[in-house]
Prior knowledge:
The complex is a heterodimer of chains A (about 250) and B (about 325).
Chain A: E1 2-11, E2 14-24, E3 29-33, H1 40-47, E4 55-60, E5 63-64, E6 67-70, E7 73-76, H2 79-86, E8 89-92, H3 104-114, H4 120-133, H5 149-161, E9 167-171, H6 179-194, E10 199-202, H7 206-212, E11 215-220, E12 223-228, H8 230-235, H9 240-249
Parallel strand pairs in A: 3-10, 3-11, 8-9, 9-10
Antiparallel strand pairs in A: 1-2, 1-4, 4-5, 6-7, 11-12
Chain B: H1 20-45, E1 48-49, E2 52-53, H2 54-62, H3 65-96, H4 101-116, H5 119-127, H6 129-132, E3 135-139, E4 146-150, H7 151-154, H8 157-183, H9 186-194, H10 199-229, H11 241-252, H12 255-284, H13 296-305
Helix pairs in contact in B: 2-12, 3-4, 3-8, 3-10, 3-11, 4-8, 5-8, 8-10, 9-10, 10-12, 11-12
Bound molecules: adenosine-5'-diphosphate and magnesium ion.
Amino acid sequence: MVKAEAVQKSFGRLEVLKGIDLEVSPKEVLCLIGPSGSGKSTFLRCINHLEKIDGGRLSVDGELVGYQQRGDKLYELRDAEVCRKRSEIGMVFQHFNLFPHMTALENLTEAPIRVKKESRTVAVERGRKLLERVGLGEKVNAYPRQLSGGQQQRVAIARALAMEPKLMLFDEPTSALDPELVGEVLDVMRGLAEDGMTMVVVTHEMGFAREVSDNLVFMDGGVIVEAGKPREILSSPQHERTRAFLSKVL
Amino acid sequence: MANAVGLRPEAIKAVPVRHPGRWVAAIVVGAIAAYIFYTVVTAIQNDHTAQGSGWAAVGHYLFNTLIFKGILVTLELTVLAMAVGIVLGVILAVMRLSPNPVMSWVSWLYIWFFRGTPVLVQIFFWFNLNLVLKSIDIGIPFTSFWLHANTNSLIPPFMAALLGLGFNEAAYMAEIVRAGIISVEHGQTEAAQALGMNRGLVMRRIVLPQAMRVIIPPTGNETISMLKTTSLAFTASVTELFTRQQQIATATYDVLELLIVASIWYLVMTSILTVGQFYIERHFGRGSSRGTTATPFQRFRRMLFTFHAPPPAPPELAPAAPAVPRSEHR
Ligand SMILES: Nc1ncnc2c1ncn2[C@@H]1O[C@H](COP(=O)(O)OP(=O)(O)O)[C@@H](O)[C@H]1O
Ligand SMILES: [Mg+2]
């Protein structure tokens, strides 16, 4: 589903991703862990072209991200194409980023109606179902500020699902939450994984990584230090840097 | 300190701090105001006019048909000039923030010029456009299809004033809108883009509605200011309120009375705008706090009912906030 080969990204002179190789197969849940500033968010944002990569190759579902290959030349995609591809990838942010001027339901129906040109009835029906699914059936008409952090993040997940994505990206979805609210969000994500959603999750929740993910990747300083089965890495890390990081977070 | 449930501590009864400075200030200000008021009132009272005392004349002209016609033109000019200013201002602001350098430079240049020259000069410029440009010809080169328009007939006085006021306003509105757009957190744009929305959709559906909260208050001020600035249109012989009172004053010599009449109408109109602004702000503030702002009427009623009692907590602060996400505190 996602294939990265030697992906490289710099901000000015700061090289943030120094050649990332990684593959995510359909229905796989991949967890990305690593210290702050190691480039996890940047890599995630590259996948839906919120950041442009400077080197290497990155493809989603067999198609290059942000470019098109004709012959042996790469052509930058036009805005409309980039948008269409983004609409097939859901993204959940650390700070939720719900639209504060819209109710929970409007947050869910906005993109399907405007981007996918769905009819309002269809969008509203799916929106209600999704809110029900994340346990917020009664909060249909609530504005984001009237919801707790955990509820907001669940609405944000539902908003991404409303576009019926083939891939979901999570960037530290529970890091901004009070500890007692983390569980409700992880439960929703666990349910998604069980339903066979392909997911790339940046997280510091090692319990979730251990139980839910199929593969675990440890990043540091813009490179992948170690990758493999979560149980193996978490219980017997091979690299010193992994060990040092895990000893801090576990 | 933890209190057992049901055992609320007694309300505090204390002698409030005295503020003698406030009383002194109130008396001084009151005296000055009373003096000014008295001077104006008696000056008009002692002014002899065809209607008797000056005040009778004020009452007479207040509902004069010509004055009403002037008010109508003033309102038309205000609404249209603000419409031009807002539409063009939004376009300029979006252009200014565009990644396309040509767009952003054109916008910068426009703002630099129209904000840097007096609006009076601009009105005069449009009024005298025929000095620069005898006629406007639009057509397809090398064919016989040409539209011809004489600038004098194309730009009558009202149009000259409208263009002068509107184009000038656009420069100010552009800056106001730009400030509003910048005030919206970048995460909003990102979330919208991640859903596949294109630049236009993001701007129209996500960023601008949120920017409204920042844009509306200064726009209200601009509208109120515009209502008064339309009086400059008298220099282009537009028959708005100020011109009308001037015309009557020249004919009747009741200069002071007519200035009072015009002032009264300007005050009435700006007061109505102020009330309108309150309701529009309230509308665009939805979702921004946990309750809605009380209308002045509601506040007045609450004040009556709680006369002497301590004021109740405003509704938006009343419920204890459960688990506010940290993002709001960044
Ligand atoms: N837009 C940007 N401009 C410049 N530097 C950035 C930008 N975004 C991220 N960085 C830098 O890139 C590095 C990696 O950031 P990030 O991907 O957010 O790390 P992580 O998510 O692992 O904490 C950091 O040093 C950060 O300061
Ligand atoms: Mg990050």
